[in-house]
Design a protein that fits this description.
single chain, mainly alpha, 69% helix, 0% strand
Length: 321
């Protein structure tokens, strides 16, 4: 999971022996902060995708559906945090050689490996068992598939080209389905197409930005050696094309169905900010300025503005205003 490394390259990596001994010099409050940081709370923002299906169905505003979506959010926060802990524990030596990942708490030695593994297992198990025991069977299956995919990715397939793209993209797709499954809402074919290829677009763009950022120093992610920049550009440009085409077909279909019922074709109008947002994001990817999708979204004010406009227009459309 790459980040901008221009500033960090000037900082030499600490020897592994020194890093591993770092945890012993931390007090309890500092260890607590380091553990909380190792859960990567900044990356939890991607879990808001659980609201996508209820929003697309126009049901998010109903309190029972909102509660179900919040349950899905909690499950995916626990599952993703547990996955981060185990992934960072397994990759600790490789992360220490990475220009930015070496600053992660586990790589620094601030969080003991046994604690990282134990907490990760508890969080992963709880994210599946709790919904299964509280009446959210479909959600439990969805989270279980997510945990299975992340486990396969972390242990065996993260360095397998193409397969790694599919597994990471499946994480975004499963998140976007979770809220609808928790609330027993039907998932439209258009929603699934847009969610699936939108996920692939973000993942391929992230890999492309890593190649641009790391250059020849790709030993920290061996699967990058199997990709070329032109191939990844092909994947994320193709994915973007499918997203735009599927969204346009859905938007015009909805507009035709509601002609004469609503005061304006809001769903059709929402195409403009969606396309502009994808083009803006693609420009950042092309320049290698993006790492995690949530990072570029949060720091790009224009992208946030386009997202806000799209959300308003889309919301008006699904509410039949």
């Amino acid at each position: 999971m790459s980040e901008t490394v221009a500033a960090s390259e000037a900082v030499p990596a600490a020897p592994p022996a020194v890093v591993a001994a770092g945890a012993g010099h931390l007090g309890l409050p500092a260890r607590g902060r380091a553990f909380a940081q190792s859960l990567r709370p900044r990356q939890w923002i991607k879990n808001v995708l659980v609201f996508a299906a209820p929003l697309a169905a126009g049901q998010l505003w109903h309190l029972p559906v909102l509660v179900d979506a919040l349950v899905a959010l909690g499950c995916f926060v626990a599952a993703s945090a547990g996955g981060y802990l185990i992934n960072d524990a397994r990759d600790v030596e490789r992360d220490r050689a990475h220009p930015s990942k070496r600053r992660r708490p586990i790589a620094r030695g601030d969080v003991p490996l046994p604690l990282a593994y134990a907490a990760g297992v508890v969080l992963l198990a709880g994210s599946v068992v709790v919904p299964a025991l509280t009446g959210y069977g479909n959600l439990a299956i969805c989270v279980g598939v997510y945990v299975t995919c992340t486990t396969l990715y972390s242990n065996w397939l993260k360095h397998e080209p193409v397969v790694d793209l599919a597994l990471v993209a499946s994480g975004f797709l499963l998140r976007s389905m979770a809220g609808g499954l928790a609330a027993d809402l039907p998932l439209s074919r258009w929603f699934l197409i847009v969610a699936a290829f939108g996920s692939l677009f973000m993942v391929a763009g992230k890999r492309y930005s890593e190649i641009v950022t790391l250059g020849d120093d790709q030993g920290t992610r061996p699967s990058l050696r199997e990709y070329s920049a032109s191939y990844l550009r092909f994947v994320w440009s193709t994915s973007a094309g499918v997203v735009i085409a599927a969204y346009c077909l859905w938007a015009f279909e909805v507009a035709d169905e509601r002609a004469g019922v609503t005061s304006a074709p809001w769903t059709s109008l929402s195409i403009a900010p969606l396309v502009l947002g994808l083009l803006k994001y693609a420009r950042d990817v092309d320049r290698g300025h993006t790492g995690e999708p949530e990072e570029i979204v949060l720091r790009d004010k224009m992208l946030l503005a386009l997202g806000g406009v799209w959300l308003v227009l889309f919301g008006l459309g699904v509410l039949h205003v």
